[in-house]
Design brief:
This protein is α/β, with parallel strands linked by helices. It folds into 2 domains: 78 residues, Brix domain (Rossmann fold); 68 residues, no CATH class. The chain has a 9-stranded mixed sheet. It is globular, with a radius of gyration of 15 Å.
């Protein structure tokens, strides 16, 4: 997956992109003056079929549109907590633990992570669970410690829904 931002991203939006690149097997590119079409061409050139565009409002990341093969696949409205310490993830061994049934297939397909919902899967994983009735994506390192970024998912929809 290739991740990019809106045209003039804030520091916090760039931090989210770098954070996702640090914990997932994804690449992040600065968009600069590239059009969305140019970004699709760049992704194809890099051999990537999935593209995520992080949007922002008032300098804070607030959305992510995911494209598959140049077509919109899913959209998320989100907020991000950057306050967690930065741990180390083994990107090639990451698994998905999802406790929110309606997000299970979506998150697994987007980030191309195998689903493993067992008690042992709480290390080196992307853990999707509910906190105060809001679904949260948290990254847990191989020692079992939460690492950033923590992403709160407020709304999501698949294209065509």
């Amino acid at each position: 997956m290739l991740i990019t931002t809106s045209r003039k991203p804030s520091q916090r939006t760039r931090t989210l992109c770098r954070g996702l690149e640090r914990v997932l097997n994804v690449r992040c590119v600065n968009r600069g003056k590239m059009s969305l079409r140019d970004v699709f061409l760049k992704a194809k050139e890099m051999g990537m079929d999935l593209l995520a565009v992080i949007s922002q409002k008032d300098g804070n990341p607030n959305g992510m549109d995911v494209y598959l093969g140049g077509e919109l696949f899913a959209s998320f409205k989100l907020t991000v907590d950057f306050s967690l310490p930065r741990g180390r993830m083994k990107k090639d061994q990451i698994c998905l633990r999802c406790e929110v049934d309606e997000l299970e297939g979506i998150v697994s397909n987007i980030f191309q992570i195998p689903l493993e919902n067992s008690d042992e899967s709480s290390h080196n994983c992307l853990w999707v669970r509910t906190k105060k009735s809001t679904p949260v994506m948290e990254f847990v390192d191989f020692k079992g410690h939460a690492t950033g970024p923590r992403i709160y998912l407020h709304e999501w929809k698949l294209a065509g829904d």
